[in-house]
Structure formats: structure tokens, C-alpha cells
């Protein structure tokens, strides 16, 4: 099928309908495009989570060398998941536009340039095996996006393989972790997801994350959050 025209997109509405043709005649394809921002400390696993979301090896990952992070610039990668879900009885594509950010926090202007229509979902990435890192995350996200950010956020706890090795179950882990992380887990509308970097990562691990993200955005009627460009962190 060749998709040629876009005939419905207005304001902050991330849905659009593409018209095209195939040998069976004219067709229309619904497309939902969501902007996703990865946030977290260096080495928390943001780029790995981005790869899981996209289902590829698009973002560079790895251990940082002499304190320098692998991710030094904002990076946008997008992927179209064809016929990913049904909306109002029709099949719809899901386009994920994922922005990876350099630590400790993104530059508001860069986020605005990459996502001028705003951010639909914030993915907060924290290492499950180092729960005392990055206690300033909440403060910083609130400064960037204002008090509404919790409605658009989900928490991803990486390095869950280390929990398994220590014999900890997710529920038990959350009841024993540090106060700030437990408060964050309870406060974000999208809930918590545990991820581990195993051999089927990233293509399979990404599916539950994409589903969760889509449900969260739908709960917000796919409204986007605008980054406050006047703040500096
Ligand atoms: N064992 C384990 N390693 C992980 C996991 N997630 C990420 N890593 C590794 O941690 C390092 C940092 O990950 P990266 O995604 O580059 O972190 P970033 O600096 O936040 O972007 C890399 O070597 C990853 O392979 C995980 O869930 N388990
Ligand atoms: Mg990175």
C-alpha cells in the first residue's frame, strides 16, 4: 500500500488518517503518534529502555568511561508499529517517537525542539539494584513539566535480573525499597514495570512497555504535556 495524503490533523490531536491506495482500491489508515521522553540518571538504563520501546538497537548503550555518559546529546528515534491496536473498530498504527536524554536532566529547549507538540508519556528510569540513586528526579521532573507530570509518567525499574539473583520478588522489593522510590512508584499514574537486560531484550521485553504506555496515554485522551522552556536545571 502507498500512503500518500494526510487529511486529518489539528491542534494537539496526535491522531491522523493517512489515505492511500493498494491494488484492492482506496484505503485509509489511522495513525497515532506519541512522543515519549526517557528520564533518569546516567547508567540507569535509559538508552536500553529506549531500545526496548523501539524494538531495536537504535540508542547507544554501555558503561560510561571516566564519568562520561554514552548519551551526551538528545536523540530522537521513531518507529511505526503497523496495525498495533484497534480504535473505534478500526486498526491503527502506533508511531513511537522516543527521545533519549543526556544526564542528569534534559535541556527544556531541546525537548521543545524535538517535540514541539509536547510529550505524551514520561518514562522515568531507575536502577532497581541501586534505589538510593537520583532522589532529585521527582523535583527535577516537576520543575520541567509542572504538577501534572504524574498523570503522564510511568516508572521503569531496570536491572531486575539482580533482584532475581538476590531472590527478591517485585512486590516484596517495593515494600522494602527506599521511601522516595516507593512514593514515586505509588504516585505515577502509569505504574511500575520491572525490566531486565536478558537475551530476548530488546524486541520482546518492549511489548509490555509499549502496551502500558499506550494505555496511559489513552487515559489522558492522548493529551500532551508541554515542557517549561523558561526553567533551567
Ligand atoms: N544487568 C543489566 N544490565 C543492564 C540493564 N539495563 C541496562 N543495562 C546495562 O547498563 C549499562 C548502562 O545502560 P544504558 O542503557 O547505556 O544506560 P543510560 O546511561 O541510562 O542510557 C549498559 O551496559 C547496559 O547494557 C538491566 O536491566 N540489567
Ligand atoms: Mg544513554
From TrEMBL:
Lineage: superkingdom: Eukaryota
Entry-linked Gene3D superfamilies: P-loop containing nucleotide triphosphate hydrolases
Keyword entries, A-Z: GTP-binding, Nucleotide-binding
Family per similarity comment: Belongs to the TRAFAC class TrmE-Era-EngA-EngB-Septin-like GTPase superfamily. AIG1/Toc34/Toc159-like paraseptin GTPase family. IAN subfamily.
Record-given protein name: GTPase IMAP family member GIMD1
One GO MF term attached to the UniProt entry: GTP binding
Gene for this chain: LOC115005746
Domain AIG1-type G: 34-198
Alphabetized InterPro entries for the sequence: G_AIG1, GIMA/IAN/Toc, P-loop_NTPase
Amino acid at each position: 500500500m502507498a500512503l500518500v495524503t494526510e487529511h486529518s490533523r489539528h491542534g494537539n490531536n496526535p491522531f491522523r488518517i493517512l489515505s492511500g491506495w493498494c491494488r484492492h482500491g482506496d484505503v485509509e489508515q489511522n495513525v497515532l503518534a506519541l512522543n515519549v521522553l526517557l528520564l533518569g540518571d546516567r547508567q540507569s538504563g535509559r538508552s536500553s529502555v529506549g531500545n526496548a520501546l523501539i524494538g531495536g538497537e537504535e540508542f547507544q548503550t554501555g558503561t560510561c568511561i571516566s564519568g562520561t555518559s554514552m548519551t551526551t546529546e538528545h536523540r530522537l528515534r521513531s518507529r511505526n508499529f503497523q496495525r498495533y491496536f484497534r480504535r473505534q473498530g478500526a486498526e491503527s498504527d502506533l508511531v513511537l517517537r522516543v527521545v533519549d536524554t543526556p544526564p542528569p536532566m534534559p535541556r527544556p529547549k531541546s525537548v521543545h525542539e524535538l517535540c514541539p507538540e509536547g510529550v505524551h508519556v514520561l518514562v522515568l528510569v531507575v536502577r532497581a539494584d541501586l534505589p538510593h540513586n537520583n532522589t532529585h528526579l521527582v523535583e527535577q521532573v516537576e520543575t520541567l513539566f509542572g504538577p501534572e507530570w504524574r498523570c503522564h509518567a510511568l516508572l521503569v525499574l531496570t536491572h531486575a535480573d539482580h533482584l532475581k539473583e538476590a531472590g527478591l520478588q517485585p512486590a516484596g522489593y517495593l515494600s522494602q525499597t527506599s521511601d522516595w522510590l516507593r512514593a514515586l512508584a505509588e504516585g505515577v499514574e502509569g505504574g511500575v514495570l520491572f525490566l531486565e537486560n536478558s537475551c530476548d531484550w530488546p524486541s520482546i521485553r518492549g511489548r509490555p512497555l509499549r502496551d502500558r504506555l499506550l494505555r496511559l496515554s489513552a487515559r489522558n485522551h492522548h493529551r500532551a504535556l508541554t515542557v517549561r522552556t523558561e526553567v533551567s536545571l
